[in-house]
Amino acid sequence: MRLLFLSLFLFTLMLPAHAAERIELPEHTWTFSGPLGKFDQNQLQRGFQVYREVCATCHSLSLIAFRNLGDLGYNEDEIKAIAASYEIKDGPNDMGEMFTRPGRPSDHFPDPFPNRKAAEAANNGAYPPDLSLMTKARHGGADYVKALLMGYTEAPAGFDLADGQYYNRFMPGHRIAMAAPLLDGAVDYKDGSPKTLDQYTSDVSAFLTWAAEPYMIQRKETGLRVMLYIGLMTLIFYLNYRLVKRRVKGA
Amino acid sequence: MESESKIPPAKKGIIGWIDHRLPIFSFMDHELNRYPTPKNLNIWWNFGSLAGIMLMIMIISGIFLAMNYTANTQMAFNSVERIMRDVNGGWLIRYLHMNGASMFFIVVYIHIFRGLYYGSYKPPRELLWALGVAIFLIMMATAFMGYVLPWGQMSLWGAEVITNFFSAIPVVGEDLVQLTRGSFAVDNPTLTRFFALHYLMPFLIVGLVVLHLVALHRFGSNNPKGIDITSPKDKIPFHPYYTLKDLVGLGVFLMFYSAFVFFAPDYLGHPDNYIPANPLQTPAHIVPEWYFLPFYAILRAIDFDIPLLLFTIDSKLAGVLAMFASVLVLFFLPWLDRHPVRSARFRPWYKIVFWLFLFNALVLGYVGSQPPEGTMIMIGQAATAWYFIHFFVLLPLLSKYEPVATLPKTLDEPTI
């Protein structure tokens, strides 16, 4: 019986961890990794710039409101100015007509296309997904987004790509309908950070991680305090328990 | 009904006045304070009270979530994200609830395996055990329906797969599927009824838990030695000994729980559920939550038709039957294992079988998480076979042939 148990155990150890194809993602060190990690506001602002100038052409960010940009270090006036630079569809007015007006901090980022069909029509039939939750909706999170944005290479010989498809090392199936969106020098940073693909992809991945979980830092900070509190509480319970346990013989 | 003369006169004070008319205080004193409990309960007896606390955490956090959730296919996904982003403390309540489901299952699985190891299901505690299995069943249904509510990709496709089980039932299958879905496909009527049931079922569980406790307090807790306790010296009052011990366990458990909630809230979930449900796009792998994986493996293990004399059970129905049987068999456990000794401590043969069973359950869980390809299929089938062999062959055989050890008379009597 023991032998059976042992051999069964060893057998499961030898099984492949994942039978399905899982592409290894290069791991990046993020400022927000680990229980003490925090967002770098400068990086978030740069990432926002990349989103705004490049990604926003096709991708919506519907869960984020302009007022949320305070997390990135913008003050109220700056947020109002950013919001006002967007046209927001509103209405109907008293005449029953829809109209556009400059954005307000309470507005959410407007979608680049009027509806899903229009988005597909403009993108060769593929729908550019909303980016609000992208880092939570993929294995690997920020690592995945960075890897994907940097993963464009020539297709290997004999790999068939249809019109409007591109080869990407990190896309499941390697076929992606999005052309490489970023190149060195594509976005003009004002803070002197390197204008390289590597820097852009790191920044925009950090920005999207924030967009997916704006409360992440609050979560971790609360967590540390909660752990400390429960830890002390448990210690007190334990000491109390030891006191009363002495009274029981033979337990 | 006692005659009035038998009731002792009222004690002094307001509490005495109330208690004379509604003996709630003497009931609590009797069941929670003085309640005599075996003095040798080990750490594994912590998990019953932990399960009760988890149930309360789930109900309370769930009520607050329901205040902000919208059960409509167009709005459900965003309403959950609104809770996470805009409701005060919403992210905490939602992560507590979401990870709480996993914690509840961890606690309950340990509680069940403790019962298996120490023979807590044996006479006279058969109904106590059966009530526990009923709680477990309703818990599974509740967890499944709860997972559908955020209306992500796994919510939709999980609901699609699970409701489709009923189509395997001959004749009435298709009608049953439509009844559960409230529609021809998993759609808005499915979501609204799942929400209603998800809110209802926890309260059914509360009712069953009360019965579970009534049955428990009838004969008192089993204990690691599994012997009937006759000497009053072997029992201690529940309070303060076990209230304090349970609090220590609760503290440790809350730290484990918090580690997930605050530092890895999505570790136990599936990323696909952060993609809004899309009926036109099937995810590459539809995987249930980890706590269903062993049963999922059993469901998929039967990939062949079973020919009987007059008709054939097709593989789909057989799989569904096997899966339900794997839970329902637990109801019959007290009659499958008739060995007179309760605790595995005094049953060396059963001990081996028990650990193999636990290991086999883990193998099933692993197989359930993998795509059904290659060796996985075979391992899944072997593990499924072992699962049922354990109940229907090994336990009855052990009941008959495992030697009956001489048990100690009291807890203090030394054993070798």
Please tell me what the overall shape of chain A is.
Answer: globular
Assign an overall shape of chain B.
globular
What name goes with the CATH superfamily of the largest domain in chain B? Answer: Cytochrome Bc1 Complex, Chain C
Roughly how much helix do the residues of chain B carry, as a percent range?
55-70%
Descriptive report:
The complex is a heterodimer of chains A (251) and B (416). Chain A has 251 residues and is mainly α. Chain A has seven helices and four strands. In chain A, the strands form two sheets. Chain A has a two-stranded antiparallel ribbon. In chain A, strands 3-4 form a two-stranded antiparallel sheet. In chain A, helix 2 packs across helix 6 (197-212) and helix 5 runs antiparallel to helix 6. The two termini of chain A are 33 Å apart. Chain B is mostly helical. Chain B folds into three domains: 8-35, no CATH class; 39-286, Cytochrome Bc1 Complex, Chain C (Up-down Bundle), CATH 1.20.810; 295-409. Helix content of chain B is 62%, strand content 2%. Chain B contains 15 helices and four strands. The radius of gyration of chain B is 24 Å and the shape is globular. The termini of chain B are far apart. The interface between A and B is large, with 48 and 49 residues.
Briefly characterize the structure.
The complex is a heterodimer of chains A (251) and B (416). Chain A is mostly helical.
Blueprint of the fold:
The complex is a heterodimer of chains A (251) and B (416).
Chain A (H helix, E strand, L loop, with lengths): L1 H13 L26 H13 L22 H9 L2 E4 L8 E4 L13 H7 L19 H9 L15 E2 L7 E2 L20 H16 L3 H30 L6
Antiparallel strand pairs in A: 1-2, 3-4
Chain B lengths: L12 H9 L2 H10 L2 E3 L8 H22 L7 H10 L4 H28 L8 H23 L4 H12 L8 H9 L6 H32 L15 E3 H26 L29 H9 L4 E2 L4 E2 L1 H14 L4 H4 L11 H22 L5 H27 L15
Antiparallel strand pairs in B: 1-2, 3-4
